[in-house]
């Protein structure tokens, strides 16, 4: 049975793994996180839930729509219109989906029946005989015929360099052009509902805050109200290394009309160094020149976002089986 190692258990890696499994491949996914899902992340604070990475996704390709249909049937996801008044969204009839129990539950559903090792940070890879040999920080060694790397491109490039693996100047330059915006995410557990008007989300075009959502109105936090605030890319860049507690309080205070200070119970902050890929490789993946199949993908390739990551993983699997 042919085998594949996949680095990264986000949407791209899990999708590639599922597709390769369907084709009869032996697949192992490695992720450095304590859990799976990458930027499809949900946190529990007190009795509340808050999505602090991806907020919702759309499905425009038939391949992703098939997966979405299954997830709808299994009640893992549901439809939610965050910007109900946006005529543009309705004009193109692009429904938005959210995880019923948060976005991370989507990743967990996709990972069913897959072999995924968490808390395994990959530190190097090389060709050893007729297979790839991947080494992790914990001392783990994994071997496979094909290697798929779905971590954000700057991290992938650092891994290539740390491994001392020779890639062509053209491949290196393709990976180097991919870039990401940072995002500071603030999660606030509340002791009473927020004052966000329905449908429970506001996107700001200017200022320090880019997005605020009421996770209760979104439907993922029935037991206790909570909001998620995403700082703008500029604010996140400028304040990335500042004291997180102070930043969390500062951003929450800016929304005092929507989340009065006496309703705030707990504030937590997460820094995403890589949030949305603003410069992407045009194709859904990059198959680099190497003695054995070596593919790079993720949301830095193709259309970006959750759906772009899905397409990247799906296409990577297709190319791997064709090699
Ligand atoms: C704040 C924020 C808001 C967003 N909002 C939206 C939205 O509303 N809609 C939307 O569609 N998209 C949104 N996105 C983008 C979306 O989350 C991503 O495009 C998508 O989830 C990326 O999936 P991926 O598989 O490419 O990467 P990731 O989800 O980042 O997965 C990569 C995985 O690789 C792992 N990893 C990294 N290095 C190593 C290593 N050395 N060894 C092992 N594992 C490693 C990481 O732990 C991670 O789990 C948002 C993202 C953020 C951060």
TrEMBL record:
InterPro entries: Amino_oxidase, FAD/NAD-bd_sf. Pfam families: Amino_oxidase, NAD_binding_8. One of its GO terms (molecular function) is oxidoreductase activity. Residues 94-318 form the Amine oxidase domain. This is Amine oxidase domain-containing protein. It comes from Spirosoma fluviale.
């Amino acid at each position: 049975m042919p085998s594949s190692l996949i680095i990264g258990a986000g949407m791209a890696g899990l999708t590639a793994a599922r597709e390769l499994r369907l084709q009869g491949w032996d697949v192992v996914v490695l992720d450095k996180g304590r859990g799976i899902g990458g930027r499809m992340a949900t946190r529990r604070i007190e009795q509340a839930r808050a999505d602090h990475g991806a907020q919702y996704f759309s499905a425009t390709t038939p391949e992703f729509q098939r997966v979405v249909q299954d997830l709808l049937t299994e009640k893992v996801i549901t439809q939610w219109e965050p910007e109900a008044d946006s005529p543009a969204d309705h004009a193109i009839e692009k429904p938005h989906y959210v995880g019923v129990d948060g976005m991370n539950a989507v990743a967990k559903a996709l990972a069913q029946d897959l072999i995924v090792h968490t808390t395994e940070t990959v530190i190097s890879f090389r060709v050893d005989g007729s297979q790839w040999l991947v080494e992790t920080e914990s001392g783990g060694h994994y071997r496979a015929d094909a290697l798929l790397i779905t971590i954000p491109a700057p991290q992938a490039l650092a891994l290539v360099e740390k491994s001392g693996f020779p890639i062509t100047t053209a491949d290196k330059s393709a990976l180097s052009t991919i870039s990401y915006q940072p995002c500071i995410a603030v999660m606030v557990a509340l002791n009473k509902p927020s004052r966000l008007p329905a449908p429970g989300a506001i996107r700001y075009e200017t200022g320090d805050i880019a997005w605020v959502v009421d996770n209760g109105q979104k439907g993922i936090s029935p037991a206790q109200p909570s909001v998620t605030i995403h700082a703008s890319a500029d604010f996140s860049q400028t304040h990335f290394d500042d004291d997180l507690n102070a930043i969390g309080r500062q951003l929450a205070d800016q929304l005092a009309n929507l989340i009065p200070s006496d309703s705030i119970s707990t504030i937590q902050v997460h820094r995403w160094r890589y949030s949305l890929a603003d410069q992407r490789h045009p194709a859904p993946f990059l198959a680099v020149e190497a003695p054995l199949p070596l593919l790079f993908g993720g949301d830095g390739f193709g259309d970006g976002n959750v759906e772009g990551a899905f397409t990247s993983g799906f296409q990577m699997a297709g190319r791997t089986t064709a090699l």
